[in-house]
Each structure stands twice: as structure tokens, then as C-alpha cells.
Design brief:
The structure is a single chain. The model has no long low-confidence stretch (mean pLDDT about 85). The chain is about 80% helix and about 0% strand. The protein has helices spanning about 5-20, 30-35, 40, 45-60, 60-65, 70-85, 95-120, 125-155, 160-170, 170-175, 190-200, 200-230, 240-245, 250-265, 270-285, 290-320, 325-340, 345-375. The chain is built from 18 helices and no strands. It folds into two domains: about 1-185, MFS general substrate transporter like domains (Growth Hormone, Chain: A), CATH 1.20.1250; about 190-380, Growth Hormone, Chain: A, CATH 1.20.1250. The chain is mainly alpha-helical.
């Protein structure tokens, strides 16, 4: 597949935009200590940015369809850059929460426009490949944001990390002036009737339940593992914490290879169960490892999760003979809603029952995911 200039620009913008979503994560223990708050309260910095992404298919549909993709990106990225710079002046935790919620209101527009560009700029027959590259770019962006947060919070202070991220938004803004074509956003707005038509089919119900279970667990681990590392290695800096997320990068090749893996195993159900098993093994390993082991274990957790994520999204589109936009919108809503809850509630689990207790609860939740996969029709794949 030959990458056009327009597609390259879109992928660069995707990497930088997704960096914004995850930049606070390695800094959560530092911010919790500075503002004297609990891990659960600190997790709201992730939850408030993800929640609008979950609600976007319900509330954003008509608005997003009214504006061309390039104009949408130029406005939203400019506001996002300004928002990041405002973190330099934040001195109270509620101000951080307000700024993160504002980011969350901008991100659905940015992500939807970028996804539209990736799909519309693909050559005939290359849409799936183009979307695979988009998913890879989101994964790289997720790691880059955590790395920027860790490096600058350790070298200077946490304010500087947000300032640098704000300046980074200027790169896609400049590159967008080099994009030769525009694209119309096709965003399916969800309503109660369309949602019920989709959920009336058992395969969708069980697919979405397994997605919610595994992403709740994965989000919880990503948010709580910095606090666990601080407990076992009190001198850990945000930079050291950011290295925990190296394993996250394995998601890019795993997502691209997911179809080959499922074909080798025979069908998507077996691929989903393999992903769930790998993720579950990673969870069990977390009960016994120290710093170096945590880094290695993250490769297992990320590989299992992203294999499931790629297969579930592909299976949802494969089954969607009609209402494809509604299915994808519902998939996005469930994905980010479970991620938002996973970024918040496990903080209280960690405080109440400790690391081992939280992991055992997560294993039970994964069991629900496994039961859901087992309930899928054998003909689903």
C-alpha cells in the first residue's frame, strides 16, 4: 500500500491527537500527592476526558455532520492547543478536571474527522488496511502521550508536560494546510430505537459485554499500575512510570496481524478466547512480579487486549449487514464508557482491598468476558 501525502498527514495528526488523551497517566501518583487526593479522584483526569467520547454518538451526530472534516480539525486542534497551554496556570485540582473535561468535548470531533480522512483517502479495496494504520497510529499516540508526560514531569514539572503537548498540536495544524482534499463526516447518530434494533441480536449483546469487561479491566490496570509501582518502588519518577507502558506498543503489530491469527486458529471466537487467555495470564503475573516484571507483563496485557479489540471491531462490522453506522457508534460508546469507568472505579478498589484483591476482582470480570465469548454463535465469525 502506497501512503499518500494526505494519509501520512492524517496519521501524524492521529498520533499527536491521541497523545493528548493519555498524557496525565504516568503523572497520576505525582498529582495525587501534590493535591492530596486519592487514586480514585486522580483517575477522574482520565475519566472526564473519555466520557464525552462515549457520549459522542448520542449527542454529537448532527453537529459533526454539519462541518467539513478539515475545518473541524483546524478549529478543534487550535482549541485543544490553547487548552493544553492553560494547564500552566492551573493551581487547583478542580481546574485540572475542568480543563480535561473541555479536552474530552473536543476529542470526539477530532477523532471522528481523522477517522473519516483515513477511510476516504484509501485506494479502492484498501479501506481495511487504511483503518489498520489508523488504529496503529492511535496506539503509538497513546504511548507517546505517556512518554511525554513522564519525561517532562521528571525533568521539569508537570505543568511543562502539558505545555509541550499544546505546542505539539501546532504540527498537525501546519500539516493540514498541505492536505489537498477534504472529506465529509459520516457520523451515525444513535437513538433508542436504533440501539434496541442492534441489541435485539444476541451476538451483538455478547460481543459488547465482552468488550466492556476487557476494556474496564485494561483501563483499570493502566490507571492503577503507577500507584502500585510507587508503593513497591517509592522513588519511582514519572519517567520510570512511563516506561511501564512500553508494552502498549505491541498493540500496533497485533492489531494488524489479528485477521491472520484468527484465520490460523479457525475463527474469531478462538481468536477472542486466545486474547482473553493472554490478558488473563498477564493479570495473574501481576500478582508476583516487581518493576522489571511489570514492564514485561504489560506486553501480555496489551497483546491480549488489542487482539480482542481488533477482532471484536472487525466482527461487529462483518455482522452489520445493515445499521453499520449504528453498530460502530454503539461500539465506540461502549468502548469509551467502559474505559471511563475503568479509569475511575478501580482506584477505590485499590484503596479498599489492595492490589491483590483488585486483581482477583478483575479476573472475575474477565470471566464474564469469557462467558460472553462462549455464548457467541459459532457461525458469528
Amino acid at each position: 500500500m502506497i501512503l499518500t501525502r494526505n494519509l501520512v498527514v492524517t496519521l501524524i495528526a492521529t498520533v499527536i491527537a491521541f497523545s493528548t488523551l493519555y498524557i496525565p497517566q504516568p503523572m497520576l501518583p505525582l498529582l495525587a500527592k501534590q493535591f492530596a487526593i486519592s487514586p480514585g479522584q486522580a483517575g477522574l483526569l482520565m475519566t472526564l476526558a473519555m466520557l464525552p467520547l462515549a457520549l459522542a454518538p448520542v449527542f454529537y451526530g448532527y453537529f459533526l455532520q454539519a462541518i467539513p472534516a478539515r475545518l473541524m480539525l483546524q478549529i478543534a486542534l487550535s482549541l485543544l492547543a490553547l487548552n493544553q497551554v492553560c494547564f500552566v496556570f492551573a493551581e487547583e485540582f478542580w481546574q485540572l478536571l475542568a480543563l480535561r473535561f473541555m479536552q474530552g468535548m473536543l476529542l470526539p470531533a477530532i477523532f471522528t474527522a481523522l477517522m473519516t480522512y483515513c477511510a476516504s483517502m484509501a485506494a479502492p479495496g484498501q479501506v481495511r488496511r487504511s483503518m489498520g494504520l489508523y488504529i496503529g497510529a492511535t496506539i503509538i499516540g497513546g504511548f507517546l502521550g505517556r512518554l511525554v508526560g513522564g519525561v517532562f514531569a521528571s525533568s521539569f514539572d508537570w505543568h511543562s508536560a502539558f505545555l509541550v503537548m499544546g505546542l505539539m498540536q501546532l504540527l498537525p495544524l501546519f500539516l493540514l494546510t498541505r492536505v489537498e482534499a477534504d472529506a465529509d463526516i459520516n457520523f451515525a447518530r444513535l437513538d433508542s430505537r436504533s440501539i434496541m434494533r442492534v441489541l435485539a441480536r444476541r451476538n451483538y449483546r455478547f460481543m459488547f459485554l465482552s468488550l466492556a469487561a476487557v476494556f474496564f479491566v485494561f483501563s483499570g490496570i493502566l490507571n492503577i499500575i503507577p500507584f502500585h509501582l510507587r508503593d513497591i518502588e517509592p522513588g519511582s519518577t514519572p519517567l520510570v512510570i512511563s516506561m511501564l507502558y512500553l508494552g502498549y506498543l505491541v498493540g500496533a503489530p497485533i492489531s494488524l496481524m489479528s485477521d491472520s491469527i484468527s484465520r490460523w486458529l479457525g475463527d474469531e471466537r478462538k481468536g477472542l478466547l486466545l486474547g482473553l487467555t493472554v490478558h488473563g495470564c498477564g493479570l495473574v503475573m501481576l500478582l508476583f512480579v516487581s518493576l522489571q516484571g511489570l514492564i514485561i507483563t504489560m506486553f501480555f496485557l496489551a497483546a491480549g487486549f488489542f487482539l480482542m479489540h481488533a477482532l471484536l471491531s472487525g466482527l461487529a462490522n462483518h455482522l452489520a449487514q445493515e445499521h453499520k453506522g449504528v453498530v460502530n457508534g454503539l461500539y465506540v460508546s461502549i468502548y469509551y464508557f467502559s474505559g471511563a469507568l475503568g479509569s475511575w472505579l478501580p482506584g477505590y478498589l485499590y484503596e479498599g482491598i489492595g492490589w491483590q484483591g483488585m486483581i482477583l476482582v478483575f479476573l472475575l470480570i474477565l470471566g464474564i468476558g469469557g462467558w460472553s465469548i462462549g455464548r457467541l454463535d459459532r457461525s458469528a465469525g
